[in-house]
Structure formats: C-alpha cells, structure tokens
Amino acid sequence: MKTDIPYNQLMDLEWRRQESNRKAQAYSRCVIALATVATVLLAATALYNILTQKGPSSHPTPSSSLHVGQGESCSDPCKIILLESIPEGLEFNSSTANPSIYQAWLNLMSEARSSIDIASFYWTLTNKDTGTHHPTAYQGETVLKELAKLSGQLSVRIAVNTPPESQPQGDLRLLNDSGADIRTVNMRQLTTGVLHTKFWVVDKKHIYIGSANMDWRSLTQVKELGVVVYNCSCLAADLGKIFEAYWFLGESQSIPSPWPTSFSTLYNKDTPLQLALNDTPSSVYLSSSPPSFCAAGRTPDLQSILSVMDDAQSFIYIAVMNYLPTMEFSHPKRYWEDIDTQLRRVAYERQVKVRLLISCWGSTQPVMLSFLKSLASVYDFKTKLDIQVRLFVVPASPEQKEIPFARVNHNKYMVTDKVAYIGTSNWSGDYFVHTAGSALVVNQTASQSQEPTVQSQLRAVFERDWSSDYSTPVTQHTNLKNIC
Ligand SMILES: *[C@@H]1O[C@H](CO)[C@@H](O)[C@H](O)[C@H]1NC(C)=O
Ligand SMILES: *[C@@H]1O[C@H](CO)[C@@H](O)[C@H](O)[C@H]1NC(C)=O
Ligand SMILES: *[C@@H]1O[C@H](CO)[C@@H](O)[C@H](O)[C@H]1NC(C)=O
Ligand SMILES: *[C@@H]1O[C@H](CO)[C@@H](O)[C@H](O)[C@H]1NC(C)=O
Ligand SMILES: *[C@@H]1O[C@H](CO)[C@@H](O)[C@H](O)[C@H]1NC(C)=O
What we know:
Layout: H1 7-16, H2 21-52, E1 79-85, H3 101-111, E2 115-120, E3 123-124, H4 127-130, H5 138-151, E4 155-161, H6 170-178, E5 181-185, H7 187-191, E6 199-202, E7 206-210, E8 214-215, H8 217-220, E9 224-230, H9 233-252, E10 273-277, E11 280-289, H10 301-311, E12 315-320, H11 338-350, E13 353-359, H12 366-376, E14 379-380, E15 385-392, H13 398-401, E16 412-416, E17 419-423, H14 430-433, E18 437-443, H15 454-466, E19 471-473, H16 480-483
Parallel strand pairs: 2-4, 3-8, 4-5, 12-13, 13-15
Antiparallel strand pairs: 1-9, 2-6, 6-7, 7-9, 10-11, 11-18, 12-16, 14-15, 15-19, 16-17, 17-18
Helix pairs in contact: 3-5, 5-6, 10-11
The structure holds 2-acetamido-2-deoxy-beta-D-glucopyranose (5 copies).
GO molecular function, one term: exonuclease activity
EC number: 3.1.16.1
Pfam families: PLDc_3 (PF13918)
C-alpha cells in the first residue's frame, strides 16, 4: 500500500462525500432543454448563413484571414503530430515511436509570440510539489521555468480547477508572480465535478490536447498520449472557444444558459471542419463535456464517443485508464450504461471487433475487473462476437514505486477503422456528466494521400501496446493481485 495519497485521489474522495444524485437529475433535464435551444439556434444560424451567403458573424478570434463557416474550408497548412510520454524504462519490440509531449511543449513555447492559453486540472511540475527527489522531474521543472519566463513577456492565461487546500500551489504562485493571468474554476460548486481538461492554445494558431496533466510525472513516469497541431488557426479558434468558456466560468462562477453566441460553434459531429492536416483532406471537430458547458453547436463528449462507435465498420480499439459502466463517485450507487451498451450493441448487431486496453495499477478498483470480465465474455468465434479486453501494467523498480501517482497507462483514446478520437476523460459516467473534458476527432477517410493518417498512426500505437508483454488478457480467472 502506498502511504501517499495522490492529489487526484484526494479530489476523488471529496467528490465521494457529495450527494450528486439530485443534481445529476436536475442537470439531465437542463441538458435536454439546452440541447433543444441549441438545435434551434444552430438551425437558425445555418439558415441565416445560407440566406446571406456568409460565415459566422460572431467569430471571436478572427486571427485567421479566412472566415471559415459551414460548407467552407480552412486553407491553413495545418501540421498534426501524434505525441507520447513513455515512462522511464519502458521498452517495446516495435518501430512505432512518436515525438514526446515534453518536446512538443518546449516547441510550443519557443513558437509563442503573443499568447499561451492553458486549460488544466492541477499543477505539480517540480520535485518540491510532490515531495520527491527524482532526477526525471527535470523535464517538468524546465517547462515551468520556461513558462514563467514567458509569463513576463506575453499573454499567458491559465484556467485551472480550484485547487483543494491540500494541493501544492507553488507552480501557480510562481506563474502568477511572473505575470501570468490565472483563473480558478470552481467545478465542485458548478457541477460537483472537476476541470479535468488538458490543452494548450498558442498564438491562436497552434494547439496541444491530450491526457498529460501539468505534472512532471506526466512527462517521464506516466504513459500519456496527445497531439499537437501547428499552424491551424481555424481549429485553434474553435478550441479557443472552449478555453474562453472556462475563462468565463472562472470569473462568473455560474453557468450561463444559454451560452452567449460568441461561444457557439459550427463544427460538430454532423458538420465537421474541413481542412488539410499534413496535406491530407480531413474533417475534424472538438467535443466537450459536461453538456452544460456546450454552447450551441458543440457535440457533447459522450455523443461524440457513441457516434464514433456507431460509425465503425470493422474495429474499435480503446485505450483508457479507467473503464466503468457506473457513476464512479455517486452515492447512492448508480449504474451508467451508455458506453457499455453501445459496445455490446455494435459487437452483436454488426460484428464489429472491439478491443479494450485498460490500465491496471495499485489503485485499480476490483469492481472494474468484474465489469471488464463481463465485457470480455461477449466472445463467440462461431457467431463472430468479438470483444476482447487486456490490462496494461507499467512495471516499476523499487525506486520508481516510491513516486506517488505514477507508473500507469493514462492514455485516453479510441481508434476505429475510420477515425481517431483523442480525449482527456476516464471512461465512467462522472466524466461525461459532471467533469469538464474535451476531445479531438479526426476523420481522414477521404484521404488518397501516401502520408500516414492520424488513424493509422494511432492504430499502430494501440497494436504495439496490445501485443506487448505489458498487456495481459482478461479472462474469467483473472486475479488483479497476480497482475498489478
Ligand atoms: C482517472 O481515474 C483515476 C482513478 O479514479 C484518477 O486517479 C485520475 O485522476 C482520473 N483522471 C485522470 C487524470 O485521468
Ligand atoms: C496573483 O497575484 C495577485 C497579486 O499580484 C493576487 O492578488 C492574486 O490573488 C494572485 N492570484 C493567484 C491565483 O494566486
Ligand atoms: C508554421 O508556418 C510557418 C510559416 O509559414 C513555418 O515557418 C513553420 O515551419 C510552420 N510550422 C510547422 C511546425 O510546420
Ligand atoms: C468520416 O467521414 C466520412 C466521409 O468521408 C463519413 O461518411 C463518416 O461518417 C465520418 N465518420 C465520423 C465518425 O465522423
Ligand atoms: C521483446 O521481445 C523479447 C524476445 O522475444 C521478449 O523477451 C520481451 O519480453 C519483449 N518485450 C516486450 C515489451 O514485449
């Protein structure tokens, strides 16, 4: 047993004390109402644009010379790169390797000329924050130093979940003292959740999004996956709207309903943004949770996941840290079926092959294994029912075991035969109902180009991990104690 309680878990414990049931019901009513308003608004906007033959009139960030709107496309030379943090000591028998998240963050800072906006959960970029003396904190400490330097030179804005008393605040204090603008978002009060999103918007044209927290361990001791997109002001403008929503909530401390039109988007699962990523024709959109944070036009994160699954024809590969068909932090207990049911449905009705790669570490809840065994039992060779589950373990030396909240696969993505979905949420009900998260969905099925697509790169990452010695198949006899 670890003696340190990770900060994230402290927050989880706080949630658990809450009675979220009543609020959840109030929210779902509110969400239905909002969705109705959103649909009407979106339809009206679209009609107006068609009638007047022009793009959106209230584009809040006209940094792009183009006015991108429905049916129009973005001519930015967007360059997308898949990123990973591979924990110290992890080695694969595979040529699949991606640039590091650390390197991308350094690049983004060196590219920055006017602004850096960061949405974040918590900040522990130094050994001091975690009470450790580990040499692999160097990368995180470098990021913090560089960001503090830039905070005096350009506009640096940070939206962060309101830190509990117990959480170290040295990094935020340093950044504040260096000139950064910081707003705390009191998610606990707003939705009984947390701000779990992790993304960057730089100069309103480059973005980063992925699973890594602003934590030194996310760069060297935790397995992470993310993506950086350079020179892409149309996409950055859309992610900027999600940032502006957090920024707004950091000040107002109450959720507008409906959201002002400056937060609305034209890009969603039904009308994605058309652009060239690495010279490959692509359609992309950003989803967001919880639904109460979605302005008109924005696809809620859960709808995004369900629709990506619906669209898959031959396979769905999922790599997430936690997978639970429950409201993980609710009392009384509540079952939450949406994702689980969708997986069983597509496996049964359309013989889609489903693979889940879930993380296993010291703090894995035993109940998760029961639900995973249930999913893994949906397998029958004759009728082509084919759901398989594996547990991924990041091994730790005695010294690495001393690092709190580390040595775990923290990935949050899904890849199908059609698209890549790169998100920031664990897969249990809370993350789609109360918690703020976001995801990028990239569809390059129209591509004829020789360039590897994001989908094919992500698939290679999944296959590398799935077939490595770090993964163990879940069977009816699997016992967590023997694995992690
Ligand atoms: C995901 O779930 C685990 C276990 O509840 C939690 O520790 C972690 O903070 C969650 N969030 C992230 C960052 O994935
Ligand atoms: C930032 O510093 C100012 C004083 O310069 C202080 O009023 C404010 O509370 C600080 N904000 C945070 C988030 O620490
Ligand atoms: C972004 O565009 C600029 C100007 O065209 C170019 O110099 C730079 O190399 C591009 N960045 C990337 C990562 O492609
Ligand atoms: C991807 O794009 C194709 C058209 O190129 C479309 O038929 C399909 O529904 C899209 N998939 C998703 C998940 O958006
Ligand atoms: C790589 O291959 C070697 C030899 O087959 C094997 O011993 C080792 O466990 C493999 N490592 C991984 C991570 O799969």
